[in-house]
What does this fold into?
Amino acid sequence: MFNSARENGEPVGDNFAPPLLIDGDVQISQSVATCLYLGHKLGLTPPGYNDFKAMQFCADIVDCFEGNLGKNNEDGAALKTFLAGDRWKALMGNIERSINGPYYFGEKPSAVDFFLLQHMDWRTANVFGPLKTKGVDVMAAYPKVRGAHEALMATDAYKNYAGGLRQMGSIKDEVLAAF
It folds into this structure.
């Protein structure tokens, strides 16, 4: 169980799922909430930024990469059908259309762009990259998504991250064999 704070043996507080961010008296959990909180704290709110659209865009990313792609990447036939289907195109087309410049809100990155970055890192390492070695480029039709990802990966902060970037696991060979 994530929430280890207890009174009389019972969990207390309103945070359960990781990640957990603690900033003084503020405790926030869940990836979207922690990302947007940090984005505000770090000034990642460029001109044109809108809190509600940022929440929508992050939820769209979760829906696409976790709720849909993530539910189809354990079986080769299911993954192949999903990536060739209308749902993938609709989800990714929506994300592509939401990026208004090189980044979501224009010329400067926001917390949403960093949220997309981590999802793209994850899925490039364990799905998109291995598929590309098979000649299947499922990201070819989404140049804005790829562009935002590549631009953030090219920053010194990304390249020189002191903690090192953890290598994520790849897709199972039996799933990749379907392609």
Residues 6-41 form one domain.
